[in-house]
Automatic annotation (TrEMBL):
Keywords: Cell membrane, Cobalamin biosynthesis, Membrane, Transmembrane, Transmembrane helix. One of its GO terms (biological process) is cobalamin biosynthetic process. This is Probable cobalamin biosynthesis protein CobD. One of its GO terms (molecular function) is ABC-type vitamin B12 transporter activity. The gene is cobD. It comes from Haloarcula limicola. HAMAP family: CobD_CbiB. Pathway: Cofactor biosynthesis; adenosylcobalamin biosynthesis.
Length: 308
């Protein structure tokens, strides 16, 4: 019951606050620990070794810090522990700000493409300078779909799983659940900062993130299929996976592309639903709304599973 309360606290904070300012956000603090790894190393071997050590130590440090904080709160009262765990879960997830940014890009894509290109920087790292309005909308929808998995389902699922399994091992549920959610978020943050082909130091984090995100990506695609009331979208998405280099992101993006019957494209990198047109404004808005519904479903399902 306390685990379900923690999920409810996280959902309420997400709805009310969105995200705290960057300078007060623990994920940003964690990023400052990762940043020193992003440098020129003497060789690829040195870079890989440093990245491997970082991928092992830094997420573990984050997990221990968060788990210890929740355990300390639990010494005050079970309710204090639940509130601390809910706060920890809130800080390791993100949905509202993602949806706001995606909606803004879609809204500006026709009337003010330059503003849309600037807004896209909050969602993706790609060069937006030459993107057409259709490609800008595609990027916004792609990012919303992919980040449903990265930003919400992964940490939320880890929290619920940790809360369920910890008592079986004789461990306290809430500290373990919060620690596992923090570990997943830390791995994903390292991949976001370092996981580029040009950065050998990021290879260990990228491979670890691929493994961690395997189930959340597929669970997110299922949530999207339910949110769009289109179960066939999963079958169609599966047929496009070979066109995406990531072993995971093709699932949620493909599910949305199928549900919207729209082409989602990152020029020169991947193309989903190639026979369809790029999303118009109406389709893109529907896509972002669908991701929002899927996020609400994730919170609701997480709360129900945590209750039992």
């Amino acid at each position: 019951m306390l685990s379900a309360l923690a999920v409810g606290v996280a959902a309420a904070l997400e709805a009310a606050v969105g995200e705290p300012p960057t300078r007060y956000h623990p994920v940003a603090w964690f990023g400052s620990l990762v940043a020193p790894l992003d440098q020129e190393w003497r060789s690829d071997a040195h870079a890989f070794a440093a990245g491997g050590l970082g991928a092992l130590v830094l997420p573990l440090f984050a997990a221990l810090a968060v788990g210890a904080s929740v355990a300390l709160a639990e010494t005050l009262s079970p309710m204090a522990g639940a509130l601390a765990a809910g706060l920890a879960l809130f800080l390791t997830t993100s949905l509202r700000e993602l949806l706001v940014a995606a909606r803004s890009v879609v809204a500006d894509s026709e009337t003010d493409p330059e503003a849309a290109r600037d807004g896209l920087l909050a969602l993706v790292g790609r060069d937006a300078a030459g993107l057409s309005p259709g490609l800008l909308r595609s990027a916004a929808v792609e990012s919303a779909a992919e980040n449903l998995a990265d930003g919400l389902v992964a940490s939320l699922g880890a929290f619920v799983l940790g809360a369920a399994l910890a008592p079986l091992a004789g461990l306290p549920a809430l500290p373990v659940a919060a620690a596992v959610a923090a570990w997943v978020k830390a791995v994903n943050t390292m991949d976001s900062m370092l996981g580029y082909r040009s950065k050998r130091v990021g290879t260990p984090a990228a491979r670890l993130d691929d493994a961690v995100m395997w189930l959340p990506a597929r669970a997110s695609a299922l949530l999207l299929a339910v949110a769009f009331a289109d179960p066939r979208s999963l079958v169609r998405a599966r047929g496009w996976l070979s066109r995406v280099s990531s072993p995971n992101s093709g699932w949620p993006m493909g599910a949305v592309a199928a549900a919207l019957d729209a082409r989602l494209e990152k020029p020169g990198v991947y193309l989903l639903n190639a026979s369809a047109d790029l999303p118009d404004r109406t389709a893109a808005q529907r896509g972002v709304r669908g991701v929002g519904r899927a996020g609400l479903l994730a919170y609701a399902l997480g709360g129900v599973l945590a209750w039992f």
